[in-house]
Write a structure and sequence with these properties.
This protein is of the alpha+beta class. The chain has two domains: 1-165, Beta Polymerase, domain 2; 247-412, cca-adding enzyme, domain 2, CATH 1.10.3090. The chain has helices at residues 20-31, 41-47, 63-69, 102-105, 125-131, 154-160, 169-175, 178-190, 196-205, 214-225, 230-239, 243-246, 248-254, 263-278, 285-306, 311-326, 334-349, 357-362, 367-379, 385-396, 399-412, 424-432, and strands at 4-6, 36-39, 56-59, 73-76, 82-87, 90-96, 109-110, 116-118, 139-142, 147-150, 162-163, 193-194. An eight-stranded mixed sheet has the order 1-10-9-2-3-6-5-4. It has a two-stranded antiparallel ribbon with strand order 7-8. A two-stranded parallel ribbon has the order 11-12. The protein starts with a strand and ends with a helix. 33% of the residues are buried. The model is unreliable at 101-107 (pLDDT under 50).
């Protein structure tokens, strides 16, 4: 296969845009006599004028040879060996060209659905190119002459704004079903259209995601929704039937929404997430996942209370059941599931404001997240708007005003009449009679 080579005047990538550490790796490998290229998303993003999140290098040097060239290197991976070159917290990933074609086909292990299980074969740059997932991710920036090497028509697709798989789409999806999720993520992130031949099999093969480890799907889900394009990603995932395989309880809730809830509730949460990312604010993954599963928790609480369980116990058991079911699809690390439980549990406590309860709740470590959750519920019709207004004001006023607000609540709350206890002797007499 003869590649198309775009010389330096034919593209817009400059070394000034490339990280200094990536350049060190590229030049070291070149000086050691190896081929060295920037490859993948960093080349794609540089062509778009964006700042890449990270820089990946491809080379004909074996992982062991890369390790010999860099003292600050560590080899990782079992399915495919990679070299990580460390510069403090910055990591440059170096991958040896992967092999492809008939000569290694018998060595590649797949399961009954065609999913690739083991692939530790090395090859040439040409073989490496055809093994990558999308054409726009298979462009190579050559440090020798600053050209871009294209074996699969990636530059044409890049200029056309088109997401296209390399090879037969159905075969590539079966090899790794996560490619369907990546297709959506890149199409939304880059504002690219999807090639019809790559789009069609997704509707039939979405079920293959059930074969992917829950831990990997959790990582992919975070990339989907915490990249600043959550709203569009959510809509596209649902369009292709992929969201149901990531968060089936949320999809079930969306099927019987009432007055826009929980659809509006989830959509608003996604919108707020995008806004926070746009202005550089931090995002807590547990908060967004909590919104996905809130309706399922509420329904389970209602069933538990109807069965006679006290409200607090009903909430605890509902949270455990929902988290357990979700963890079968996307892993929920303990730090995330614990935070979710607290945010859900505090929703009940917001209505209990008399006495010292409001002050104790204000001091809870998870108060702010739970309060934001309450605001979101109130905004979308899932909670009392006046309750949210009260808590907003309660945080802003002085301690004296806080006491007045709580006192006003105590006055307006009717006290329960205590039954007058009868003397023990009189009670015994009545029982004898």
């Amino acid at each position: 296969m003869i590649p198309k080579v775009y010389t330096r005047p034919e593209h817009n990538i400059s070394r000034d845009q490339i990280s200094a550490n990536a350049l060190k790796v590229l030049y070291r490998l070149k000086n050691e006599g190896y081929e060295a290229y920037l490859v993948g998303g960093c080349v794609r993003d540089l062509l778009l004028g964006r700042e890449p999140k990270d820089f990946d290098v491809a080379t004909d040097a074996s992982p062991e040879q890369v390790k010999q060239a860099f003292r600050n290197c560590r080899l990782i991976g079992r399915r495919f060996r990679l070299a990580h070159v460390f510069f403090g917290r910055d990591i440059i990933e170096v991958a040896t060209f992967r092999g492809a074609g008939d000569k290694v086909q018998d060595q590649r292990k797949v399961d009954q659905d065609g999913r690739l299980l083991h692939d530790n074969n090395y090859g040439t740059i040409e073989e490496d190119a055809v093994r990558r997932d999308f054409t726009v991710n298979a462009l190579y920036y050559n440090i020798k002459d600053f050209s871009i090497v294209d074996y699969v028509g990636g530059m044409d697709d890049h200029r056309a704004g088109m997401m296209r798989l390399i090879g037969d789409p159905e075969t590539r999806y079966r090899e790794d079903p996560v490619r369907m999720i990546r297709l959506v993520r890149f199409a939304v992130k880059l504002s690219f259209s999807i090639n019809p031949e790559c789009e069609k099999p997704v509707f039939q093969l979405a079920d293959l995601l059930a074969n992917i480890p829950a831990a990997r799907l959790h990582d992919e889900a975070l990339k989907l929704f915490l990249s600043g394009y959550a709203v569009e990603t959510f809509e596209m995932l649902r369009h292709y039937g992929l969201f149901a395989h990531l968060y089936p309880l949320a999809e079930e809730s969306l099927s019987y929404e009432e007055d826009g809830f929980p659809r509006l509730f989830i959509a608003k949460a996604l919108e707020n997430t995008d806004k926070r990312i746009a202005v550089g604010k931090t995002i807590a993954p547990y908060f967004l996942i909590s919104t996905f599963l809130w309706d399922a928790v509420k329904n389970q609480v209602e069933q538990n209370t109807q069965a006679g369980l006290p409200e607090s116990v009903a909430f605890q058991q509902a949270a455990s059941a929902v988290i357990s079911q979700q963890a079968k699809h996307t892993t929920l690390p303990k730090y995330i599931s614990t935070a979710m439980r607290e945010v859900w549990g505090l929703q009940v406590r917001f209505s209990r404001r008399n006495g010292a309860r409001a002050f104790r709740l204000l001091d809870h470590p998870r108060f702010r997240a739970a309060y934001d959750f309450l605001l979101l519920r109130a905004e979308t019709g899932g909670a009392d708007e006046q309750l949210a207004i009260w808590w907003t004001k309660f945080q802003a006023v002085s301690e004296t005003e806080k006491q007045k607000m709580v006192s006003a609540l105590n006055k307006n709350t009717p006290r329960k009449r205590r039954r007058k206890r009868k003397p023990a002797q009189q009670k015994q007499k009545q029982e004898n009679e």
